[in-house]
Specification:
By secondary structure, this protein is of the alpha/beta class. It has helices at residues 2-16, 24-28, 65-73, 95-112, 129-143, 163-178, 191-194, 197-202, 226-237, 260-273, 309-321, and strands at 32-34, 37-39, 49-53, 79-85, 115-121, 149-152, 186-188, 211-218, 242-248, 277-282.
């Protein structure tokens, strides 16, 4: 009888393949930060690669089980970033609606065994610290025991906000999260739209563990080239963990050119550094950085005609790198 069941299991694995494969979370467990690297439960370096959803209040149709399933099965993502919009008709206006979208995607990512970043997608979070504290405490209470969860407390602080202001905000929100969740990784933004990461690295948060610093770029922008990479290199040399939670193939506006040579230079740099990243974005907006063509279904199953040049490029990249 034992031989029969072993043969049956072997047959199922051979015929179905992915059903027997470990999910990213099964393979790596709860992630942590060791020096400048993101590592798995065994202390081995990990590079997450996936997609960022668009502002939740404007592209909520893709905050769905079906979108997550398609990104996992077809694009081979191992992380999805939830860009929960705060201003502009988002969380501050309709918290219940936005939280439901967030919960839907978190639940789907946990079900599929991938990592999920919950991002407070707000350029002026220093003005909304109490709301951010309450939101992240709610997320931590719901999902803090899940190894899938990663927090991102502040998307792209403006250049008008100093690191001292942003750091004080982070200190409060990190303390709120840690009052409930002691160990899931927290990503921290820096001034000038997450480009001044070397400034944050020179004066990092103290007395807290399992934190990394986010770095954003748009690969085709003439102003986002060697000098910007040097800022991230300087932060890494100082020993902080850098996480590229958002990058696009376009210029910084989200539109403009798609320079494949410049984009490849950035991809090569991230791979050399072993950095984790999420590409911007799963959206059918008529702009260069959007991965989908207008009208693409929220149920996934996107054929080549439904992918923008950015989407086709990033899908191929993910399928190649996330083996």
């Amino acid at each position: 009888m034992m031989r029969f069941w072993m043969a049956l299991c072997l047959c199922v694995c051979l015929s179905t393949g992915p059903l027997c494969a470990q999910t990213p979370v099964e393979a790596n467990g709860r992630l942590s930060v060791q020096g400048a690297r993101l590592v798995n439960e065994d202390g081995k370096p990990v590079s997450l690669r996936g997609m960022s959803l668009f502002w939740s209040q404007w592209m909520g149709q893709y905050y769905s089980d079906a979108t997550v399933d398609w990104l996992v099965d077809d694009w081979k993502v191992n992380v999805i970033r939830i860009a929960m919009g705060v201003e502009g008709g988002g969380f501050l206006m309709q918290p219940g609606v936005e939280i439901q979208k967030v919960n839907t995607v978190i639940d789907a990512c946990i079900r599929r065994g991938i990592y999920v970043i919950v991002d407070w997608h707000d350029h002026r979070a220093v003005d909304h610290v109490e709301q951010a504290e309450a939101f992240f405490m709610d997320i931590a209470a719901r999902y803090g025991t899940a190894p899938n969860l990663i927090y991102e407390t502040y998307n792209e602080p403006l250049d008008a906000h100093s690191w001292e202001q942003v750091k004080a905000y982070h200190e409060r929100v990190v303390l709120a999260i840690r009052s409930i969740d002691p160990d899931n990784v927290i990503l921290l933004g820096s001034p000038s739209w997450d480009q001044d990461v070397e400034v944050a690295a020179a004066s990092p948060l103290t007395g807290v563990e399992q934190v990394a610093y986010t770095f954003h770029f748009y690969a085709s922008d003439p102003g986002h080239q060697e000098a910007l990479r040097a800022k991230a290199d300087a932060a890494i040399e100082r020993g902080v963990c850098v996480f590229v939670s958002e990058w696009g193939v376009s210029e910084s506006s989200g539109n403009g050119s798609f320079d494949r040579s410049r984009t490849q230079a950035w991809v090569d740099w991230m791979e050399r550094k072993g950095l984790s990243w999420c590409n911007w974005s799963i959206a059918d907006k008529q702009e260069t950085s959007a991965a989908l063509m207008p009208g693409a279904s929220p149920d996934g199953k996107w054929d080549a005609g439904m992918l923008s040049p950015s989407g086709a490029y990033i899908r191929s990249l993910l399928r190649s790198l996330n083996q």
